[in-house]
């Protein structure tokens, strides 16, 4: 079960949300580590997105 080669694609936050709701993106693959950010950091990320701050790339 080798991982696919990486590719780059740009998505909006809404597009990512829609794909999560539609189960197009698997947020819990077997190789995914457990949650490591405390809730305050997770909230901070959401706040940064809503304020349109730069967010580094997310790797899936």
From TrEMBL:
InterPro entries: GmrSD_N. It comes from the Eukaryota. Residues 15-60 form the GmrSD restriction endonucleases N-terminal domain. This is GmrSD restriction endonucleases N-terminal domain-containing protein. It comes from Fomitopsis schrenkii (Brown rot fungus).
